[in-house]
Amino acid sequence: MQRYVTQHRGTEPPYSGALLHNKQEGIYHCLVCNAPLFLSETKYDSGCGWPSFYQPVSDDAIRYIEDDSHGMQRIEIRCGQCDAHLGHVFPDGPQPTGERYCVNSASLNFTDEQGEQTKG
């Protein structure tokens, strides 16, 4: 699943990801290159079935690409360092950004405050 998601722009089934319900404090990294992507304090339960964040860790952490696949107009998000597919961003998130970064668990690693790592 991880290769399918990150290298072939795939999507894991909703509500199936290992990190969907993770509530620990820490940092979410790219599964492929380990670049930091999101902080746990920006994660929230959007009800969409995938981990959701309202902002990335930095402006250059994410690359944005127009995606017109499947008859929809969306913005694909990729790792700013290695170009791995992460998911999509939508303009229906909470404040302060109003954005929902909808991310496949299979594209993430999570590192908690003690340095323990969990693969999505």
Helix-strand blueprint:
Elements: H1 2-8, E1 26-30, E2 36-39, E3 43-44, E4 52-53, E5 62-67, E6 74-79, E7 85-90, E8 100-103, E9 108-112, E10 117-119
Antiparallel strand pairs: 1-2, 1-9, 3-4, 4-8, 5-6, 6-7, 7-8, 9-10
Structural write-up:
The chain is mostly beta strands. The chain has a single domain, classed as Beta Complex (Metal Binding Protein, Guanine Nucleotide Exchange Factor, Chain A). 6% of the residues lie in helices and 36% in strands. The protein is built from 1 helix and 10 strands. It has one helix at 2-8, and strands at residues 26-30, 36-39, 43-44, 52-53, 62-67, 74-79, 85-90, 100-103, 108-112, 117-119. The strands form 2 sheets. The chain has a 6-stranded antiparallel beta sheet with strand order 3-4-8-7-6-5. It is globular and about 45 Å long. The N and C termini lie close together (10 Å). The relative contact order is 0.28. This is Peptide methionine sulfoxide reductase MsrB. Pfam families: SelR. GO terms for molecular function: metal ion binding; peptide-methionine (R)-S-oxide reductase activity.
**Domain unit count:** 1
Proportion of strand residues:
35-45%
| CATH-level-4 superfamily name | Peptide methionine sulfoxide reductase
Percent helix range:
under 10%
Q: What is the C-level CATH assignment?
A: Mainly Beta
Overall form: globular
Q: Which structural class best describes the helix and strand composition?
A: mainly beta
- Please count the helical segments: 1
Order of H and E elements: HEEEEEEEEEE
Distance between the termini: 10 Å
